[in-house]
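Lab notebook: predicted structure, single chain.

Context: the supervisor wants predicted structures on file for every construct in the current expression panel, including those that have not yet been purified. This is the next one on the list. No modifications to the sequence; it matches the entry in the shared construct table.
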Amino acid sequence: MSMYLTFTIGKDKRNLVDDITDFHIDNSTSTNPQWLQARQNEDGMRQVFVTVKNEDGSPFNLTDCNYWFQGKLPDGIHKIIDARHGVTLDAQNGKFRFDMPKHAFTVAGSYVQAFFRIVRNGESLITLEFDLTVLSDLVYNDLVPSDYITPFEDLYSKLDTIYKNGDQLVKDTINEWISKFQEAFTKWTGDYETINNTVKNITIQLGELEQKIKADGLMTQADLDKALVPMNKLLDAMDGRVLILEEMNQINVKTYGAVGDGATDDTEAIQKALNEAYENKVLNVYLPKGKYRVMKPLIMKARNDQNLYYHGEGVKLTGFDKANTYLIKDTDEEDGSGNNAVITMIGNVDETNVSAKTGTGIQINNLTINNQSSKDDAYAIIGKAFQRGSLEALNIYAMNGIHMIDPYVNQMTDVVLNTQKSGVWLEGGTSNRLDSVFVRGGYNPFRISGYYSQLINCHSENCYGTLYNFEKAYGVSMIGCGDESSHAQYKFQMGDGYVDISGYFTNFPAGDGDKVQIKDSAIIHVLGNGSVNLTGLYVGFRSDVTVNDDVPMIRYDDNNSSNSNITVDGVRYSTSNGDGGTPGGNIHRLIYSKGVGGADAAGHFLGKGFNVLTRRSSIMPYLGNRGMGNSVATGFVQKALYLDAVDNTHTANMDVSKEAGYNQGDVLFYNNPGGRSMLGAVAVNNADTVANNKFKQIPLIVGGTKEQRPVIHADMDSVGMMFFDTELNKPIWWNGSAWVDFQGTPS
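Prediction complete. Output recorded below exactly as produced.
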């Protein structure tokens, strides 16, 4: 029995009804109703002849079209997705035939939904909806309702062919696989588009497996395991979960022959997988757990078509996890551009007007990358096309870690670098974000040259040289970073630009023996005319380090830094004795400026916190404070004011033999000036140390009783100081050894 349907393709009329989801055709007045009727188990009524017209009556062109029947059975549970049984009769006149499968007539009643889908080049053009009613068969019933999806029927046929031609090993393995497949299939809830993409990968592998069996008569376990990789992946994804296309849309390096035993050279296999991913736009390359040895750098490509500049189409390399998946290069081999790295990222020029150094979307995740080359230029990763990409969950072991050239809009997250030299080097670029990046043991661990980027929760441990080198950094910010690198010479080095640092923990610079002297270290080293705003600095003092030399907070090395603007605000200290240390300790040795001066010197220090004492060298202006509640700054150029001084050494109990001296004209304000009858003292010479400075006292009380006479310290030049004695009712003067009246008589 055959039925005929005619469809006119025109404007969608469903918006004229109240319930689009319950839209039905009114067959009572139609001369050509879009309606089919059959009986359960009725194989004779299977051919449906369909004519498709345009709204103006002309035929709809069906050239290169395929036809699917899709429906939901009257039980509301099972589905029919049949892409096999459509036949084109007359493409130019819009005619095709569909041979309905008998599985469509297993349940009596009206279909929840039934339609033909017309597809061209993988894209759905139109759907032709109709009513389908199945009359009950009370006499004979042999079909059990189930999902009927033709790609899986084809898959069963392929497996049956392999089963018949294979040896016992193949039969046993595939039999087990079929059993798992049947169990997993009952849980399937996805649509045909997802299934179709999955089956494409499986079909390719099954074809190779079939040819292998036919050619050789038998196969090895390794051959079978390789062929069943995508099928096992499908089972895992289907088992109680919705299949995600991305999980299937990947290339396993073992499919291309990679072994991952730490001894076999896997270079060719992995590179082939990376190339296939790029060329076929599968993009995702997967490394199962193992140690993959490579003899030369792997090349990862990203497209840089002008129209897809920020589209993000780059190869993704993903390991099983960062602790158990290794890429190891144990040679000094370089790539064609002279890069000695484990991975080199490059752009592939798809258009002549695009620079080869650009490319987007490369991702490297969940790996340990080890370059065992001992050459100074050896890196783990070099990126000449790292834009809108990401490096995440990586362990790095190499002479140098990561070097990115012109990186834009990228992320590094959860990256630990164990290096001997540079950790992360960003050379140019903008909008990059380093989050939880940790460098251990390196020399100059962070080298940043670029625009408006962020470093968040970054850290260095046991590193040397300059921890954060901002060569040209414009609008760069650091949040919640720190270090435990006492032997670094400089914590920050500033060239040109502006860097904002919020919340930083550091250890007091302790020098490094003969390599770096403490006196040559600094918190901030200024080379150019850049600006640094450091807020919330916490300084820890190691109890096992004896500090005998001064360390500048800010060190200026040349006259090119005269227009720099360095601000340090909110400083707190800790020692083994607790916050702030103890009286007479070495805390104050840290905070002072050293470098260029003159009327144009713009560097300044804002002190805010607990137990902050300041020093200065040369003629940089500083205002010191201790226990100050509010921020204070200085506009002085040639003179410095020191607040809260105990005596002329700035503290009561300490060895001042190496303490940096005051400059002539510096003023010290004493604690308890009333009780001492002195406001403070002023330095009257330029000595090398505090011990050799000379001071004049500044009297506060110029009159009073005998008990209120000022206490004169032996190290002060106070000859000529006058005091009006109210008991004697006359003025007296200090002659260097006693108080005397105008006649020289001691009083």
